[in-house]
Amino acid sequence: MKIRYFTGWLLGGWIAGSLFMILVATQNFRSVDRLLAEPRTAAGRIEQIGRDEARTFLRYQVSEQNRWYFETWEKIQLALGGVLLVVAFTGLREQRGFGLLVTLMFVLLLLERFYVTPEIVRLGRLIDFVPQAASSPERDLFWRFHGAYSAVELTKLALGLFLSLRIVSAPGTGRTGS
After folding, report:
1. Which of 4, 37, 81, 146 is deepest in the core (most CB within 10 A)?
2. Distance between CA atoms of residues 162 and 103, nearest Å
């Protein structure tokens, strides 16, 4: 019984972390536009360097932050996924398919960590200072990788939610169950 609770906590941490990273990534870039819309504290500096130049530089800074956040989150996911794999194949053998789905989540994470994210970081740094209006094959490729990253994240999130529901609804998980 305790292994199910532990597994639920692991999955909950993975799901919560993924949702938090979605929030962080989107809000970091929006914060640049919010600052430029109400530049009370930075008005003098923004006027000195120009609004477009300030936006480019601030977005670069946010990009670097996001790169660090995502790489760090992936390292945390590797630890969570490793523990979940051990639990799935040692403590939850009676849950059919559980280990296979955890393995799928882990394989998707490995794909992300060692292929998709490094490409996003590499391409992102190539386009950080390319003007938004300029055509760039690197930007097009960046957005394709970004879309792939989002698809992988949503797939892992869906798998995590599905596995969590299986843990919660498994026989013997109620208050009066064994």
Report:
1. 81
2. 14
